[in-house]
Each structure stands twice: as structure tokens, then as C-alpha cells.
């Protein structure tokens, strides 16, 4: 079996603040070690379930966070940026299972370090106009559209509850329990890594018996509401991108800060990476406030 691991940082064991996850933060180097150990636990779980190939994608910020020399030797690593498919770079239908490690809740949720892709610049996102989502939902929908089942996720308890709304069959490993956006009750590190290993082992082990998602090549609609109307205005210059306009009956178009575009899910996921590049260039926002 081939197993794909997408690794973010905010949902990693022990991490609760910006200084834990931002390059230059006083605890960032410790955060890198914690992230690497969570990923290693996931790799061990995948191997115990019979995986013969494990690919890890470092997806946080600069995408150069995992300590290469300390990564489990059975895993290959996708590192650095830019990546056309960002958090799902190199994922394709040849994989038997996808695992999300260190993921976090979407913007607006009271989860640890919650946001959707860009600190506070993105206020809300919707799939097909009516389903609120963040990184978990967008990555889950895109992976399954590629025909790859998502089998396990680790993060805070709010992130674990969020993925269950997309698929109750996803095995979860809550490594901390949110008390606020920058506060949590932490599971002991060894216990948390054990939970990650067990969730991934069971998820990967059950993958062959699950109905594999059929590849989805149909059209979907992505709507993003930004903090800044300037971002929405600039994105409107991309062919196919529209602005819903000021419609009091449509909460997604508040203050005309939303953009909307349609396409198949992998194409939307890649295009969204372009959206973020434009937004970063315009706003220069730090990831957290």
C-alpha cells in the first residue's frame, strides 16, 4: 500500500501559540521537533498497517519545517515551496490512503490556532455555496475527488470534530483539547504520539475494506470571503472569477469582499494557491494576530 501524509503544524502535540509555529518564534525550533515526532508516529502507524511506501508532504508556512535528519527513514519527503498543489502536492490516485497530521480547525471555530490558510485574512470559505469549510474540508474534498480515501487525522479536539462532519469513518487522534484559540489542555506527549500511531494504523489497515471514493471530475463552486475588499477586487481579474456583489440576502457577499469560481476540485485547489499568492502580495499579513 501507498500512504500519503499531509503534515501541518498548528495541530501538533504541545503547540498552542504563534511563537510555537512561526519561523523566528522563540519556541519554533521546539515546535519543529514536536511536528517531526508526530509525523514519525504517523509513519510508524502506516508501516504497522502494511504500507510499503509512505510520502510525507510538509505543508506549513515555508513548508520547510520537518527536521529531515530526524524523519523516519522509511518516509520520503516533499519539502519547500512554491508547490502547485500546496498541502496536497504529489497526491494522486496511485495512493491507497491519505492521512492529515497536525491539522487545525477552520476560521471562526474556537479551536487551537484556528484559521483558514491565511491567519485572519480569510474570513470564510464555502464549497458549492452552502458548505462552510477550511483547510480540513478543502483538503478532504480534493483528496476524495482524486479517488484517495482520507483515513486519519490528528489535531485538537475541535479539528477532530470538524473532519467527522465530512466523514465519520476518519480515525482521529486529539492531541490537545482547546480552551481558547491560544490555549489548550495538552495530552502527555507520549500518549498523544501513541494515539496518532494507533489512529493511522487502524485507518490504513481498514482502507482496503472501505469503498474507495470514485474520482470526481464534476464542477464545484468555491466561494471565499476575504477581510479586504482589495483582495477580492484584484482576484476578479483572473478569468472565471466573479464577485457575488452586495446582496443582503447572501451572507457570503458581505461588503462585497467575496469571490466565486467554479471548476473541478483539484483545479480549484490549485487555483486557490494563486488566490493566496495575490492576497499575500497585497496585504503582507502575518499569519496570526
UniProtKB/TrEMBL annotation:
Q: What organism does this protein naturally occur in?
A: Streptomyces smyrnaeus
Task: Give the residue ranges for region: Disordered.
Answer: 237-258
Query: Can you say what this protein is called?
Result: M55 family metallopeptidase
* Signal peptide positions on this chain: none
Which domain of life does the UniProt lineage start with? Bacteria
- Supply the InterPro entries for this chain: DppA_N (IPR027476), Peptidase_M55 (IPR007035), Peptidase_M55_sf (IPR036177)
Bias kind Basic and acidic residues: ranges = 244-258
From the UniProt record, list the coiled-coil ranges. none
Amino acid at each position: 500500500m501507498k500512504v500519503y501524509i499531509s503534515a501541518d503544524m498548528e495541530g501538533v502535540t504541545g503547540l498552542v501559540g504563534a511563537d510555537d509555529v512561526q519561523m523566528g518564534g522563540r519556541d519554533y525550533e521546539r515546535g519543529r521537533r514536536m511536528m517531526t515526532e508526530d509525523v514519525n508516529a504517523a509513519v510508524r502507524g502506516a508501516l504497522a498497517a502494511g504500507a510499503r511506501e509512505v510520502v510525507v508532504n510538509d505543508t506549513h508556512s515555508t513548508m520547510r519545517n520537518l527536521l529531515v535528519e530526524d524523519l523516519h527513514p522509511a518516509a520520503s519527503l516533499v519539502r519547500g515551496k512554491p508547490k502547485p498543489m500546496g498541502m496536497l502536492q504529489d497526491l494522486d490516485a496511485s495512493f491507497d490512503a491519505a492521512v492529515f497530521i497536525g491539522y487545525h480547525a477552520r476560521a471562526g471555530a474556537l479551536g487551537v490556532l484556528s484559521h483558514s490558510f491565511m491567519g485572519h485574512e480569510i474570513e470564510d470559505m464555502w464549497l458549492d455555496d452552502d458548505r462552510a469549510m477550511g483547510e480540513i474540508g478543502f483538503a478532504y474534498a480534493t483528496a476524495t475527488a482524486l479517488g484517495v480515501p482520507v483515513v486519519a487525522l490528528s489535531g485538537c479536539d475541535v479539528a477532530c470534530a470538524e473532519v467527522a462532519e465530512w466523514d465519520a469513518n476518519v480515525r482521529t487522534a486529539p492531541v490537545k483539547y482547546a480552551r481558547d484559540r491560544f490555549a489548550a489542555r495538552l495530552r502527555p506527549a507520549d500518549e498523544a504520539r501513541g494515539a496518532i500511531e494507533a489512529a493511522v494504523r487502524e485507518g490504513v489497515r481498514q482502507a482496503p475494506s472501505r469503498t474507495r471514493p470514485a474520482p470526481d471530475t464534476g464542477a464545484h463552486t468555491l466561494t471565499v470571503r476575504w477581510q479586504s475588499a482589495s483582495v477580492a477586487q484584484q482576484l476578479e481579474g483572473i478569468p472565471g472569477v466573479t464577485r457575488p456583489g452586495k446582496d443582503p440576502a447572501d451572507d457570503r457577499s458581505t461588503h462585497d469582499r467575496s469571490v466565486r469560481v467554479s471548476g473541478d476540485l483539484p483545479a480549484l485547489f490549485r487555483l486557490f494557491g494563486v488566490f493566496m499568492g495575490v492576497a499575500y502580495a497585497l496585504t503582507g499579513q502575518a499569519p496570526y494576530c
